[in-house]
Amino acid sequence: MGKSMPFTTIVLAMGVGALLGRLMEPSV
């Protein structure tokens, strides 16, 4: 894993975004 893979970056970004969204959204 030498070169930065855009696919992995997108997956990580989506995962982090989902986690942040759940934390920010009020659990109803």
TrEMBL record:
Keywords: Membrane, Transmembrane, Transmembrane helix. This is Uncharacterized protein. The chain crosses the membrane at residues 6-24.
